[in-house]
Amino acid sequence: MTKLFTISPSPHIHSGDSVNKIMYSVILALLPAFIWAVVMFGLDSVRVTLVAVAACVAFEYLIQKYILQKTPQITDGSAALTGVLLAFNVPASIPSWMLIVGALVAIGIAKMPFGGLGNNPFNPALVGRVFMLISFPVQMTSWPAIHSAGVDAITTATPLAILKEGIKNGQPVAELYKSLPANMDLFLGNMSGSLGEISVIALLIGGIFLLVRKIITWHIPVSVLVSSAIFSGIFWVIDPGKYTDPIFQLMTGGLILGAFFMATDMVTSPMNAKAQLLFGAGIGMLTITIRFWGAYPEGVSFAILIMNALVPLLNRFIKPKRFGEVKIQSING
Amino acid sequence: MIKTFKIGGVHPAENKLSAEKAIEVLALPKSVFIPVGQHIGAPAEAVVQKGDQVKAGQLIARSSGFVSANIHSSVSGTVKKIDIGPDTSGYPKKGVYIDVEDDIWDEQIDRSSEVKTEISLDSAAILAKIQDAGIVGLGGATFPTHVKLVPPKGMKAEVLLINGVECEPYLTSDHRMMLEHGAELVVGVQLLMKALNVTRAAIGIENNKPDAIEKMKDLLAGQNTISVMPLQVKYPQGGEKQLIKAVTGREVPSGALPISVGVVVTNIATTFAVYEAVQKNKPLFERIVTVTGKSVQNPSNFKVRIGTAISQLIEAAGGLPENCGKIINGGPMMGKAVANIEIPVTKGTSGILMMPEKEAKRRAVMPCIRCSRCVSVCPMGLEPFLLMTVSEKQIWETAENERIMDCIECGSCSYTCPANRPLLDYIRLGKGKVGALIRTRKQ
Q1: Cβ–Cβ contacts within 10 Å for residue A131, how many?
Q2: Annotated domain spans of chain B
Q3: What CATH architecture is B123-280?
Q4: pTM for this entry
Q5: B-chain residues near A10 (CB < 8 A)
Q6: At the N or C end, where does chain A have fewer CB atoms within 10 A?
Q7: Which A positions 90-129 lie with beta carbon below 8 A of chain B?
């Protein structure tokens, strides 16, 4: 008997990369920030993260199985990642049922109706988060005091909220600085805020891990950070009495989390380097715009969602540098 | 900094298992099947009949058009029949069956191993010899070399580029050729330069072959017309346009041929064939084939007569591995999977790669997660995800506007895709369709 061989077109080898590896690598990269959250907010961090992940995975499973009547694909890790990112973007004190509502919006509205993995135009975790912010404004802006494990009802404000409130009341920035954490505290994460956004260093470790593993490229995070710094820097130079410095802007309000983990969401970001740079620059400018002149103290979520909406346009009009798009360089032709 | 091409590219595991194995002459087969269409263009027309006695090197099928090539017998013996036989494509193809008797070569052929460096012929005579010898691009594309060496009206060659990149994983035939036949290659390059009437040539070699770079540099020391250009390892650097970009910095415009920037590229094996044809009167009837694979007992580089069944090469390399699930004619990135092992070695066969079952099957396709890796690795600056989608949806106009015809089918996109999407499969489909539409439009 002759043996039958596999016949398929080239290429016959594969890099070995997979969707699962990408998703789980991103989750792994978020581990340092998670550990820091447990240190700062105690077991509430574990509760919030577990509830968000479980709810996102469960909703995806139920929708795939009973509404779409397909084989559930929850092992790809994308729903779990949405859960982790949702948890990272809410206060550690958030009631579990609100989180479940947020997860339902993230998976049930922002992701699955568009066709599931790969087809959602907006970052599901951010849609869930913004829905919660609008629906539960009090709980979503009550921040647990740091090192408060086991102690209830002590709340504090985030640096950006203190600033926004102060400026609204006519206090000069120089004076407000006194009630704000020092730069080193911001860098380490010695302040309050959403669960996973507070420690710049923990997030940077994860971000660098993703860059080194080539899960993400530098284009989006660098353009977000550079554009935020330049844009806020311009106003700071013009009027330091009214605007804060760029370093402060970079280290607060989840900008690092957004730049490395939310804006880089593959599904909702552009498909080539040039478009990604523009996308990131847009996020940076919009973030600072919302922070300086908007109603909310912080604007990363909105900025990313707005730029998500522009991704199809960016993909359509900004093309990668083509090979062979050149003038004839020789005598021939 | 060491040179390479600028846009895209990937780094598959090299797996050059047979790099240390000297070229061995494979035992003569008992019979051969020599297809008459081994090149791009019109198949040659058989000029022998059943029962004819032939010698090795004797013309058995004559070139039948402008883009076509002569075919010579690779053995001496009796023509058994002219019939269809197995082919890499899976479709039966016409060819000449010869039963081997003895090993008598055409009297014209100089069988000595002495390197003949003196070049006595002029450009036209060299070209005529190359044409007579049936030389085609031996890197796998099999485009008739004599056609390539005559620039279209109004164009002129400035530089000859020799492709010693061998960027396909596993393959080592060109590497061995440089190490063992460097002196002949130098003469081959000089012959090609004379045929093209150019004064400059460069040999591009990736720096994963330091011994070959060293060897060629030694042989070329003391002159400044032919240079050796070490290149950073990156696939698909052996692609004509990528190699030209890497070595000369010139970019071949979309849709144009290399000659439009004054460059002609030939590969190492072809250059050696040119040497043999011109200096030794030997037509192209044998070539070096790498026989390799992770489970292959004895990965080797064989010198093989054209028309030998690949089963004999596999036998000589230690037999078909128990776990072999796929056999590839060529390298793993661009080679073709074959259905059976009775297909003959042809001019375009650079390697036979046996892959274990585990690696033979593709993994399940997942939804595109828009990671944009296919875009960043595409050496032509295309958007494979988009080309796949428009091909799937049969939107041919968009496919053409998005430059689907620029695709060189290197496979970097499919290789990289974390969702295992069959990007290149669909792009090939689209290219076929768009190419046909363009041709009808021109008529």
Answers
A1: 18
A2: 23-109+283-359, 123-280, 373-442
A3: 3-Layer(aba) Sandwich (3.40)
A4: 0.92
A5: 328, 330, 332-337, 409, 411, 424
A6: N
A7: 115-119
